[in-house]
Structures are given as C-alpha cells and as structure tokens.
TrEMBL record, chain A:
InterPro entries per record: AAA+_ATPase, ABC_transporter-like_ATP-bd, ABC_transporter-like_CS, P-loop_NTPase
Domain ABC transporter: 18-244
Keywords: ATP-binding, Nucleotide-binding, Transport
SUPFAM superfamilies: P-loop containing nucleoside triphosphate hydrolases
GO molecular-function term, one example from the UniProt record: ATP hydrolysis activity
Entries under CDD domains matching the protein: ABC_DR_subfamily_A
Protein name: ABC-2 type transport system ATP-binding protein
SMART domains linked to this entry: AAA
Species per Swiss-Prot/TrEMBL record: Thermocatellispora tengchongensis
Family the UniProt entry places it in: Belongs to the ABC transporter superfamily.
Automatic annotation (TrEMBL), chain B:
Regions crossing the membrane: 20-40, 46-67, 99-122, 128-150, 157-176, 205-225
Tree of life domain: Bacteria
Keywords for the protein's UniProt record, in alphabetical order: Membrane, Transmembrane, Transmembrane helix
Keyword Transmembrane helix in annotation: yes
Protein name: ABC-2 type transport system permease protein
Signal peptide boundaries: none
Length: 320, 238
C-alpha cells in the first residue's frame, strides 16, 4: 500500500486528494497502466518513470481525459471522468505544446479566466501572468514565444482560477536551465502553499529537486512510493554489478570474495563480474584489496547503471 | 452558447489565410452571375441551373466542409481543444457553440452569396433568389452540424467529408433516385422549390419529408457531437 506523507502546511480550505483505486488502463491487448493504487495529497508529488511507463496515461486519467478500463479515479470522493465540474478544482498543463498561437498571452489567460466564469477575469489573468513572470511578453502572440514562455503561459492559464489541484505533464521538457529553475521554484512555492501538485518526469534529478513525494511507475506498474530520500537511498543501496578487468582476474576474485560486501563473483574470458551488495563499502574495498594482492586494475565499469535497470530493481523489490 | 469559445472559434476559422479559402467559392459564384449578366444570358433557367449545380451542389457542401470541420478538427488534431475542455463548462454547450459558429459562417459565406448571385441574375423573378437563399441557409445549417460531428469523430474528417460531399451528395444523390431522400442537397432544393414558383425547378423530395429530416439530422448530430466530447480522450504519445 501507498504510504502517504503530507509535507505541506494545510490551508484553510479543505485539502484536495486524488485517489486512484486499482486503476488499470489497456488499449486492446496492451496494458498501459496495471492495477495502480495511490493517493496524491497536498504538496508536490513527482510521478517518475522511464519513457513509455504509462505516466501520461495515468495523468490523463487523473485529469479526466481518459476513462480507466478498471478501478476508480476520484477527487475527494467525486469521480473525475465525464465530470466537467471537477475543473473548478483541477488545473491541467498538458504535455503537448499546442496553444492558440493566434492569441496573445494575455488573451489566452484571460479567455481561461472567462471560461471559468471568474468574478473579475482581468484581475485573475493579471495575477496569473505575474506569477509566471510573463507580464512583459503578454501582448505578443503566443506563436512568437519560446518553448519555455509557452510553458509558463500554459501554467498561468491552468492556475488562473487558483485550483486546489494542479497536474503538469512533463512540464520541464525542452526548457532552458534558467526557465526550468524558475518553474521549479514556482511549483515548489505552490506546493508549500498547500496545493496538491503532481508532475510527471522521466528525470530523477528533476523530481528530486522539486517533489517531496515520489511515485515511481515502471512498465505500467506502481513500482515505488515515498519520500524522495528514501527512494534515492534504495536506488543507491541496491546491489550494483561491476565489470572489472585487471592484470590477474583470478587472484582479484579470490581476494574480493573474502569480503562480505561482494555478493557473487564470476570469472570469464571478458573479465570479472562482481555483484556488490554494499555499494559504499565495495567502492572503498576494491582499490585496497587490489593493492594488497598486487593486482593492477585496468578497468572498472558499472554494468547496470542505466535508469531502466534502476527502475526494474525497484520493481522487483516492490513486488517481493 | 459561450461567447468566449465562439470568439476563439471565429478567429481560428476565419483568421489569417483561411478566410481566402472561404471567400473563393462564393466569389466564383458571384463572378459567374456577373458574367452571365454581361453576356446577356441572365434568364430564369440559367439562374436555376447555376444555383442547383454550383451554389447548392458544389459550393454549399464544400464551404460546409471547410467551416464545419474547421471549427473543431484542427483543435482536436493538435490538442488545443484540451484548453476548452478542461473547464467547468458542459461539453454539449461547447459542441452547440461550435455548431452555431459554423452555421453562422455558412449563412454568411454560402446562403447570402447564393441569394445575391440569383438576385443579380433574375431579381425577384419567381422567387428564385429567396427560394435558393433560404434553401442554402437550411442546408448550410445541416451541413454545419454534420461536418462538426465528423470533426469530432475522426482525425480524417476532411477526407471523409470530401468523399461524403462529392460521392454521396454529388453523385449518388443526383443519380440514384432513392438516395435523394437522404441527401442534404435535395432537402435544400426541396425548400427552394417550395418558395420559388419557377417552372425550371423541380425536386422529387417532398417538403413534408425534407423539413423534418433537416431538423432531425441537425439536432441529432449536434447532440451526438456533444456526447462524443464528453468522452473525449487523450491517448498518450508514449
């Protein structure tokens, strides 16, 4: 089950929580999301997973733009699918860049405010544009904007009605570093103000910098959930596989297996393959052992450092 | 009807170069009418033929296609429609607004030019201008609804629409007598025939069938489009 951490202070308004219960989504024979149960509460949650993991599918179901094939998706108990009233509480920043290019930033955000029937749409649009620091460019057509500016104006339009929930699909994609930092600050600030924010990303560092809480999705399955430090530790502490080439593989193998930090050691034509159980201890051990045994190390390379294997490790742990 | 959505839709359809596509066909119709007048062939018979074959038979379905799919198709294709749908507005209202925008554009770019062109040719003679003007208006409203639905139902709305407009409405509707009962063009002609007293105009679809059929098709397709929008789904690019 998903342990929920609420890191942000509660505001006077009722906290908003999106709840997914045993949610699956399939397209024909392809399962995009498989039996996911999670609760997204106040604060910033990062939805992390490699490309194709089903992040967008899951986010679309939370945003009311996809029906779950099975299970329920609700916001404070109210169903999200086919319920347009839900958008009083939800702001959505879609991944696709498309916006009405013929409108100016001001017209676009103002139209959003009017569609929400806000009592003072001009004031709301002004406020939203100021929040994303787009006042200076607001009278230019959106088609003249850079990708980062488009992203910001989309965020402004999505939060013009001050929703309790904000969903962002890969919001930092294609932004330059400065714009990225600015949007990260903005997301953090909104999370700290008690809003329920969820954003998807396939980049761990991105999620780590912004989110207090992380949900990991791998191959459509809910692989891990929790505080980012916890996930980070689990990613570092997992058994690492190293390929080592040295002047005397057999001798080195014998020396390494004597220490508890090495799990298994296998010897082949191509060199040594060592499974390190305790990552930190192993990295300190290896040079010392080699020196004591009088073995020269030519090459040490991690065999499974890519994100995919990190994720698949998390999956095997979570299903154990 | 939502004025904000209507405003954006008008700008999307007639903004920039798209307007020329819309102006092209009515301009050709008016040009032909002027030409016929100049060469002295502006009689009732040629007026009726021009209106039947070009105004109702060609211009109306094509302008209907451009406008009807244009008010929603491109937004569905590029995903901008999400900005309208992620709002606390009922989806049927969004569909109705889009329909009204398309219908008003068809009135302006098809029905009014039809009236003007026939007026240029024969004035008020035998009620030809009024008849075809109102026929084009009624047909235009139905086309707006049908092509709007196509724009919601399929990403290939323009291709499907062309096949429908040319093959069904144009070919089958004019060649196969039984199929005429189910052709928007024939319904439009039926209305024109009812109003005009011209002997050159005759239709084989009764008005008592054409009017209810126009209403049923228009209302039915707009309701259907609204229901489809309620279940609008984004399928991930992944």
């Amino acid at each position: 089950m998903t342990a929920q951490t609420v890191n942000a202070p509660q505001t006077a308004t009722e906290a908003a929580a999106i709840e997914l219960r045993q949610v699956s989504r399939w397209y024909g024979n392809v399962v995009a999301v498989n039996d996911v149960t999670m609760t997204i509460g106040p604060g910033v949650t990062g939805l992390l997973g490699p490309n194709g993991a089903g992040k967008s599918t899951l986010l679309h179901m939370m945003a009311g733009f996809l029906a779950p094939s099975n299970g329920t998706v609700t916001l404070n108990g109210r169903p999200i699918w086919r319920n347009h009233e839900i958008y009083r509480d939800i702001g959505l920043v879609p991944e696709r860049e498309a916006v009405y290019g013929f409108l100016t930033g001001w017209q676009f955000v103002l139209s959003s405010a009017k569609l929400h029937r806000l009592p003072d749409p001009e004031a709301a649009a002004t406020r939203a544009l100021a929040t994303v620091e787009m006042q200076d460019a607001k009278d230019r057509r959106i088609e003249t904007y850079s990708k980062g500016m488009r992203q910001r104006v989309k965020v402004a339009a999505a939060m013009v009605h001050d929703p309790r929930v904000l969903l962002l699909d890969e919001p930092f994609n294609g932004m330059d570093p400065r714009q990225r930092l600015h949007l990260m600050d903005l997301v953090r600030a909104m999370g700290a103000a008690g809003k329920t924010i969820l954003f998807s990303s396939h980049i761990l560092e991105e999620v780590e910098r912004v989110a207090q809480h992380i949900e990991v999705l791998v191959a459509g399955r809910h692989a891990a959930s929790g505080d980012f430090r916890e996930i980070r530790r689990r990613m570092t502490d997992r058994p690492h596989l190293f390929k080592i080439r040295s002047s005397d593989d057999r001798r080195l193998a014998a020396a390494l297996i004597a220490d508890a930090s090495s799990g298994s050691v296998s010897l082949s034509e191509a060199g040594l393959e060592v499974q390190a159980i305790d990552f930190r201890r192993f990295t300190r051990l290896l040079p010392r052992v080699a020196r004591d045994a009088g073995v020269h190390i030519w090459q040490v390379s991690p065999a499974d450092e890519d994100l995919e294997s990190v994720f698949s490790y998390l999956i095997t742990r979570s299903t154990r | 009807m939502n004025s904000t959505i209507a405003g954006i839709s008008y700008r999307a359809v007639i903004g920039r170069r798209r307007i020329w596509l819309l102006v092209l066909l009515p301009a050709a119709l008016l040009g032909l009418a002027v030409l016929l007048r100049l060469v002295g062939s502006a009689d009732e018979r040629s007026a009726v033929v021009l209106m039947q074959t070009f105004a109702i038979g060609t211009m109306l379905p094509l302008v209907g296609l451009i406008v009807g799919t244009g008010v929603i198709g491109p937004e569905v294709d590029d995903g901008t429609i999400v900005h309208l749908l992620a709002k606390p507005i009922s989806r049927p209202v969004i569909a109705q607004t889009k329909f009204l925008v398309a219908a008003s554009l068809l009135a302006a770019f098809a029905a009014v030019p039809t009236f003007l062109a026939s007026y240029l040719l024969v004035g008020t003679e035998s009620g030809v201008a009024t008849g075809f003007g109102l026929g084009a208006l009624a047909g235009g409203i139905a086309y707006a609804a049908v092509f709007l639905l196509l724009g919601v139902l399929t990403k290939h709305a323009v291709a499907v629409g062309i096949v429908y407009a040319l093959v069904w409405e144009g070919l089958v509707g004019s060649l196969v007598p039984g199929a005429r009962q189910f052709s928007i063009q024939q319904w439009a002609k039926s209305i024109a025939d009812q109003i005009s007293t011209s002997a050159f105009l005759e239709t084989d679809v009764a008005l008592s069938f054409a009017v209810p059929a126009l209403i049923v098709v228009t209302v039915g397709t707009v309701v259907w489009a609204g229901q489809r929008l309620r279940s609008f789904s984004l399928t991930g690019d992944e």
